[in-house]
Amino acid sequence: MPMTNFDIKNIDPEKEDNLSFEELIVNMGPQHPSTHGVLYLELTLDGEVVLDCRPHIGYLHRSCEKIAENRTYVQFIPFTDRLDYLASMNNNLGYVLTVEKLLNLQVNERAQYIRVIIAELNRVASHLISAGTLAQDLGAYATPLFYCFRDREKIVELFDTLCGSRLTYNYMRIGGVKNDLPPGADTSIKSFIKYEREKLKEYDDLLTYNAIFLSRTKKVGILKKEVAINYSITGPNLRASGVPWDLRKEEPYLVYDRFNFDVPVGEAGDAWDRFKVRLEEIEQSFRIIEQALGGIPEGNPTVKINKVYKPAAGEVYLRTENPKGELGFYIVSDGTTKPYRNKIRSPSFSNLAVLPELVRGVNISDAVCVLGSLDIVMGEIDR
Amino acid sequence: MKTLILQGLAVLGFVFFSAMFLVWWERKVSALIQNRVGPMVVGWHGTLQTVADSVKLLLKENIVPSGVDKLIWWLAPFFVVVPPVMAFVTLPFGKSMIVRDLNVGVLYVASMTAICVLGIFMAGWGSSNKYSLLGGMRAAAQIISYEIPLLLSSVLVVMETGTLSLQGIVEAQAHGWFILKPHLAIAFLIYLIAATAEVNRCPFDIPEAESELGAGYHTEYTGMKFAMFFVGEYTSFFIVAAMATTLFLGGWQGPFLPSFVWFLIKTYGIIFVLMWVRWTLPRVRMDQMMSFAWKVLTPISLANLLIGGWFMVNA
Q1: From the CA of A159, how many Å to the nearest CA of chain B?
Q2: B138-to-B133, B134, B156 alpha-carbon distances in Å
Q3: Higher confidence at residue B14 or residue A5?
Q4: A353, B102, B173, B175: least CB-packed within 10 angstroms?
Q5: Mean model confidence pLDDT for chain A
Q6: Among A28-32, A258-262, B175-179, which range has the highest average pLDDT?
Q7: Who among B36, B202, B287 is closest to A141 (CB)?
Q8: Strand A40-46 to strand A176-177: parallel, antiparallel, or no bridges (unpaired)?
Q9: CB–CB of A365/B209 below 8 Å?
Q10: In A241-346, which residue ranges form alpha helices assigned H by DSSP?
């Protein structure tokens, strides 16, 4: 394989610049261990240094938005599970909230509290996977990944008892939720929080303040505040750059305005900050869950759930704070049982768009680290 | 002649048995660290899993990708396996268990383990794959850099004993292992770090770097040729651990048990520590690794050499 047109015979010892260089184009993905799904990155390398990066997407395209036009409002809920499949509950929630806004539907208090608890638990599960996969991308040989999956498993089991599924839940309903919390859910969630708080200290020892981990993530992939806003980055990635923007605070939906919690922000906006902000958000989610469990009212969260809805003609846009960022649904109704248009604004799409900006000039190892720290999910990029 | 053949067969048998055992053991150790059980199906606690895997690899189709540099590509696995096996010739397993006690033992083993880099680089260059090429380049840079602190720390032992023969070095430790002397303890640590890099293990597994380069230099190899890279890797792994035992931990010296048992206990102890490190730490970056070799390890081992020499002259 001719890498350069270097020939020993042509070397003139008097001349300084004897070697000519070629750029190396490496196709990273769509099958590659650290592209987080079927992402294809076209990397232009000079040796090990990334000169340019062009993400190619579309390998997981399933026409979710077109499918929505041929389904009733209720029928589309399971499709939202498949967007960000690591945070299905949050996707369900975003969609049903949008439809409820379109219908002007009031949801009873207990259902709202249950939604908050479940959404926050799913946020914890999503952040755990993000932490584990970042460590895996840094070459920590699956140990942190297995630890994170061990802890996530407890949340998944809880969801299993709640709605019978482990990954795609289809739990939120327009007007309520599918089931009430199972008996004993209160104690099992509390014991999980107690257990996980201990484990978070373990993560700090194993990863967060590990010298190698620090040297690999500090000052790597710095995302400046202005760049983040220009690329409409949202979620933990934006907060890691120092912008305290959290929809749960800024535009409270459900009953988030009743809870006391902080919005963790980073300083430098590097990969370590993004990792750290996610770990801190887990703790904040626990605070919300504890307050919600303390104040949850009695009632039946499954009341008044129809099979078919027929909203008046009109349009609605609603965004919610997903683990990856802001998930928005823009639904246009023409007065029939099916939406005329359902546009999904997915957070990972914007978060991926900034990748070329961050990896230009860094080492190929750091490019993998930056991609891991952005925490993208292909399911919602391609939709 | 007959004994020579027998000795050769014994070495080969041990090499392959040891590589198989290490693969199984590594899987069990990693499972222990990661809350798993590891292989459990084939044989008692999966002991025969590696045998089954080897049979599978033997039966696999030998795929030669188009565009490879055939000669280099075919030769590379042999360059990875043969030199470490040759290093076994002079390893003192026990009091009288040594094939040939060469009078240049330390130098011989060091040069044999260093030849492996040639095989890795050939694999990376000949594969006609960009990831493999990057892996091969990384391996060449890494192994050559870490060779220097590795040898500098071994030199201290040679200065202490005045011999390059490994059996002679072990016998010189009859009244106390070298690791008990402060300057040699530092040399032991340097040796261990450099040896980890020398055999491409985490946190220095940069040439393979699964999450960056797929599998690095051996991406394009299948079947038995792929298995040979594994055998070579684990044999080198055994060699560096055995050398650490011989140079610093008193080799086969030890009370009660037969001498070769002591040797194996110490060697596998070091191997266990290196496995433990591998399954716990993330990988360092290429430039960090190089600057660590040249700016930290090499100066420290040079300073250590000076201090050790001063001790020897004045004591």
Answers
A1: 22
A2: 8, 6, 28
A3: B14
A4: B175
A5: 86
A6: A258-262
A7: B202
A8: unpaired
A9: yes
A10: 247-250, 271-295
Structural Rg of chain B based on CA atoms: 20
CB A231 within 8 A of CB A283: no
State the pLDDT confidence band at B209, using cuts at 50, 70 and 90. low
| Closest by Cα among B158, B189, B107, B104 to B312 | B158
Which residue in B134, B211, B283 is closest to A48 by CB distance?
Answer: B134
pLDDT at A3: 46
Q: Is residue A24 assigned to a domain?
A: no
Which pLDDT belongs to residue A331?
92
CB of A362 within 8 Å of any CB in chain B? no
CA atoms lying within 13 Å on the CB side of residue A291: 14
Residue labelled with tokens 């369900």? A92
Contact criterion met (CB < 8 Å) for A366 and B285: yes
**Contact in structure between A362 and A370 (CB atoms under 8 Å):** yes
Find the domain containing A88 and state its range: 56-382
For residue A28, the surrounding DSSP H or E stretch is strand A24-28
Do B286 and A48 count as a contact with CB atoms less than 8 A apart? yes
**Peptide bond preceding B83 in cis form (omega within 30 of 0):** no
Which residue in B91, B96, B94 sits closest to B110, CA to CA? B91
Say whether residue A218 is in contact with chain B using an 8 A CB cutoff: no
> What CA–CA distance (Å, rounded) separates B123 from B215?
12
Burial pattern B39-62, b for ≥16 Cβ within 10 A else e, equals beeeeeebbbbbeebbeebeeeee
Q: Is residue A168 part of a domain?
A: yes
Decide if A44 is inside a domain: no
> Are residues A346 and A83 in contact, defined by beta-carbon separation less than 8 angstroms?
yes
CA dihedral A172, A346, A79, A69 (to 10 degrees): 110
Burial B67-93 (b: 16+ CB within 10 A, else e): ebeeebbebbbebbbbbbbbbbbbbbb
Alpha-carbon dihedral B206, B209, B212, B214, rounded to 10 degrees: 140
Question: What is the H or E stretch that residue B194 is in?
Answer: helix B182-198
Tell me if A95 is assigned to some domain: yes
Other beta carbons less than 10 A from residue A3's beta carbon: 11
Q: Environment class of residue B96 by beta-carbon count within 10 Å: exposed (0-12), middle (13-18) or buried (19+)? A: exposed
Phi, psi of B145 (to 5 degrees): -65, -45
Produce one character per residue of B239-268: b if its CB has 16 or more CB atoms within 10 Å, e if not: bbbbbbbbbbbbbbbbeeeebeebbbebbb
Query: Measured between beta carbons, which residues in chain A are less than 8 angstroms from residue B283?
Result: 138-140, 212, 216, 365
Q: Give the total number of structural domains in chain A.
A: 1
Helices of type H across chain A: 64-69, 77-81, 88-103, 109-137, 143-163, 185-203, 211-217, 225-230, 236-240, 247-250, 271-295, 347-353, 355-359, 364-374, 378-382
Statement: the pTM of the whole predicted model exceeds 0.90: no
Q: Are A69 and A341 in contact (CB under 8 A)?
A: yes
The answer to whether A267 faces chain B, any CB pair under 8 Å, is no
Give dist(CA A212, CA A365) in Å, integer.
13
| Those residues with Cβ within 8 angstroms of residue B297's Cβ, 6 or more apart along the chain or in another chain | B146, B149, B190, B193, B194
Contact A192, A299 (CB under 8 A): no
Q: What is the ipTM of this complex?
A: 0.79
Cβ of A141 within 8 Å of Cβ of B279? The answer is yes
**A210 touching B, CB under 8 A?**
yes
Which pLDDT score is estimated for B210? Answer: 66
